[in-house]
Amino acid sequence: MSDTTYQTFQHYGTNAERLAFTPAPAAGIQPIYIWYETDTGDTYIYDTSWHLVTSGGSGSINVSAGTTSNNLTNIVFSNSNSISFGLNGSTITATVSYPTQTNQTVGLYALSQTTGESSSSTRDARSLSFRGAGLVSVGFSAGEYIISATAAAGGGITNINLSAGTTSNNLSAFVLSNSNNVSFGLNGSTVTASATVASTQGSVRISAGTTSVLSSGFTFSNSNNVSFGIDNGTITGTVTVASTQGSIRISAGTTSILSSGFTFSDSNGLAFGMNNGTVTGSYTVPTVTNSSWTASDNATSLTIARLAFTNANGLTLTLSTTTGGSATLIGSYTVPTVTNSSWTVSDNATSGTVARLAFTNLNGLTLSLSTGAGGSHTIVGSHNGITSQTNQTLSFVATSNTTQNSTTTLDARSITIQGAGIASVGFSNGSIVISVPSGGGAGDGGVFAGVSNLGNTSGSTGTVSTGNFVLVGSNGITLNQSTGAAGSAATVTIVGPTIYTHSGFDPFGVGGEYVVGQVGQAQPFIFPFSAPNFQFDNVQIPILNTNSSNSSGSHTLSFWLGVFTRNASTLSRLISTSFSTAVTHSGTAGSYSLYSGVRDISFGWTNTLIESDYWMYFVSRTTSGGTGGTYSNVQISNWNTGFSGFFGQALNNSNQMRFGQGLYSVTSSGVPVSIGFSELSGTGSAVLRPQVIHFLSQTV
């Protein structure tokens, strides 16, 4: 690598001026920018960013190796990877030791049509000879190894099978080419080959920092005040320390100074010296002689030459000495044995001599005894009551003749008693007094009455506190009243019209037109009906039964009924029941005459319903064994056309001609607790023909 002259720019200024300056070199050049900071004494070099070279304040040098950079005051070059470092005056020297060239061997193999002593051999790689034999001649030409075979006359060998690597061919001529430091030649009919091994060990691995490289050529570049050179095969390195690199900061006590020269002065028995660059220090312990000193308390002062501590009152003192004349005074205390003795305790009225005093927990006060060091004792008391005033509440309940709220909770710290109407409230001798005027005249408030227009009432609303309060019966309402002595009480009896309760009820009236049809196996059918007050103890469900003369079997008929009331968009179950009966058929003979035709299924169910709107829930199901008979529902007659929904609107299965009449979307053997109106399908023709049901009261 040839030397190249670089442009160098030097400048000085403050740290702030350097940070504000950004070099902008012209394209194609690589100048060096050096900046000396006048306020810090630091020196920087710029490539693509600023790098600290020397520090004017700390005496350190920025040294970079590999990917690591540090400001150092001491640098050690360690021998490694065949490089040895030394120091000659102020010049660092470096020596690279190359390994001694040894005998390198090459393994040779002959494949197919071999001759000679052996088909494989190992030879010194520094010198190889190739010899021609028979019709083969070997030699070198223009750096190539040539093997030539001459065809023999009279039917001799015209081709030689030559193999190299994984390839084999019959050739009459072939060329050995120089490659990988092996050169071939031809001497007469002899092929020669020589391998050139670099006398300087072609590749050496050198590591620096975290990087390692294997190469035959290395260049040591000058950087960070280290310059390299070569002296007769020896690599030399020189570190240049800046002339201003002489200041070192030393701190002692609370003082710190930056200087290039320091002197250690002998003082206070400490003497300094220098031994081959090492600062030494020795300390002379002064001789101490006994002298007097002064001790004093608040009232007395005394000059003493010797102070002696005497054991007394259970306190024992000992003196422990250690190396260097230091001493430790150790004291131990023996707690004296305490015997019980009597003493006197008194309150305002009573005095007593006691040998032992025990404190008992009482009235929320808890006492405990805490024992401390030295036999001291502390009585600790805690109280479960309120130690600071907080909001305490009281609950009040008013019964009989109440007004406003009958219960409340009030702050116990402040309670207000309020009089209302003719009642007066106050306090007397620590008592709360509530007073109401006596008598029954107008204005004394003996009785208050109120009127409203709620329910089945009309007219004015308000309260009556004066005059007379009169009740009048009308429209079937009869009033009976009686008064106590002196108008002290009044009783009014209100008798309304007699409510008639019907015995039984037919939801579809009497004499309606019926048809025979099928509600559906286990298919819930719901329909609305309005009813007066009625009582019933029996239900009758008409059905039709037919059977073939030659069929026999057993049949089970099951029914589920429920009455529902409306709760917004949902039907809620009010009452329900179920019934099941079994029948055995033997054709149309025998007991068939007891079940055939239109028959009422009758079973007991007792309830009373008040006048209201209701919805009936009905489910029927038949099961059979053997040959089944035919059972049909008796239904209210209606046209055989399905309901198509509302005029001008798309058909929706949940549309119902009569609100709440339709088939429940879930087949069931039971009565659900609630059913949504939206769960009913009311568009088919079958939903227009509900099952006939009679509620009967047959109890005499």
How are the elements arranged and paired?
Blueprint: E1 8-13, H1 15-20, E2 32-37, E3 43-46, E4 50-54, E5 61-65, E6 68-72, E7 83-88, E8 91-96, E9 105-109, E10 120-124, E11 128-129, E12 136-141, E13 144-149, E14 160-164, E15 167-171, E16 173-176, E17 182-187, E18 190-195, E19 204-208, E20 211-215, E21 226-231, E22 234-239, E23 248-252, E24 255-259, E25 270-275, E26 278-283, E27 293-296, E28 301-304, E29 315-321, E30 327-333, E31 343-346, E32 351-354, E33 365-371, E34 377-383, E35 393-397, E36 407-411, E37 424-428, E38 431-435, E39 449-451, E40 462-464, E41 478-483, E42 490-495, E43 502-503, E44 514-517, E45 525-531, E46 534-546, E47 552-567, E48 570-586, H2 592-595, E49 597-609, E50 612-626, E51 630-636, E52 662-664, E53 674-676, E54 680-681, E55 694-696
What's the overall geometry? flat
Structural class: mainly beta
Task: Report how far the terminal alpha carbons are from each other.
Answer: 136 Å
Low-confidence stretches: none
Instruction: Give the spatial strand order of the biggest sheet.
Output: 53-48-47-50-45-52-54
Quick check: average pLDDT? Answer: 80
β-strand percent reads: over 45%
Major sheet: 7 strands, antiparallel
Can you characterise this structure?
This protein is 1% helix and 46% strand. It contains two helices and 55 strands. With 700 residues, it is an all-beta fold. Among the domains are: 115 residues, no CATH class; 84 residues, no CATH class; 194 residues, no CATH class. The longest helix is centred in the first third of the chain and has 6 residues.
